[in-house]
Amino acid sequence: xxxxxxxxxxxxxTGIPQLDQETYLSVKTLKDSAKVTRAxxxxxxxxxxxxxxxxxxxxxxxxxFQEALRAEEIVRxxxxxxxxxxxxxxxxxVIGFRPGKGNGPVLAIGAHMDTVFPATTxxxxxxxxxxxxxxxxGDNCSGLRALLQIIRSLNEADKHTEGDIYFVATVGEExxxxxxxxxxxxxxxxxxxxxxxxxxxxxxxxxxxVGSHRYRITIEGPGGHSYAxxxxxxxxxxxxxxxxxxxxxxxxxxxxxxxxxxxxxQGGTSVNSIAPSCSVEIDMRSxxxxxxxxxxxxxxxxxxxxxxxxxALWSITxxxxxxxxxxxxxxxxxxxxxxxxxxxxxxxxxSLKALGQELTNYGVSSTDANAPVSMGIPATCLSSGGIQHxxxxxxxxxxxxxxxxxxxxxxxxxxxxxxxxxxxxxLPKRE
Length: 431
What we know:
Number of helices: 11
Radius of gyration: 25 Å
Mean pLDDT: 95
CATH architecture of the largest domain: 3-Layer(aba) Sandwich
Structural class: alpha+beta
Number of domains: 2
Distance between the termini: 32 Å
Strand content: 25-35%
């Protein structure tokens, strides 16, 4: 396992497999070519324009499942920045297509539109110097800024590519959205590679996808009076407590890291009632799908045992007076890992190095990249630049620091993968 060291105040991972030097030299040569240099310079020069755009998009509420208003604005901007083929698909993703010469691979670059905040949340941005305060200003309006900047930079630099690029603003990445936009896109488009834009840490390149299975479990029974019906009917809450105790004692592997938690619990009607219903929401995670399925099997088995134990405690044999349980799958994010020689990882790492930046986080997370990674598609998640703080809270804020670096990294990585004038694509076409 890679370990960490401190370098100039940043935590940098060590023990990472070396870069393929041929890939790095190709990317370095590409970076120094005239039109690529121009595209990177445009990203630097337009940082203020990008920040203005980030603020404007943040002011359009976009809760998960309610992204339509923000999507309309992104359609408008993609067209204004030179993409003639811009559509909104059946699930709500905005898809802009930038064709290449037709003889290269197909790359998709995506940033999610949705936020974790309800539509009533005040998303007005407040600025104090280089610091911007608003829910969603970093996650993921910063990613949308970077996505749109790539389009502007490539078109203003008149950069023609060998392969094609899809620019995708996805729906439903957060929470119970369950990366539905990303899942739908990769299921309906033939692509050879995928880059998600999420987070702001420029040195973060994800090699793996943390999968999650989420269930809402409900135990139900007839309920009754706490005194009059005591011993006559089973309690949904008591059964849930039994299940929770069993779940708490489940052991999971540390490698691959596999976790679980009962995140919410609710039920009952009053302090002097035998509860007729109790529900919990459970989150299970791992980078390995087999480990994820194993812990899911063990957890679900606890509810069979718990309702049987609660019914048996009171010798209740009448099904009408027993408790029963049911499950609802409310989340299924697939897991996966990419090998270190994955072309998307190698080109992204080479681009980071060519830009003079350190690899500070070569790890795993749960992002829109989960869907393609789980399907074996070369994919990763890169960051937008700047620094985000207190994400997923109403106190979220964003520091405008080196925000050009995110688009620059994405531009160089994309051009290295799909190829351009005089440079062959480093991303192979998939069968």
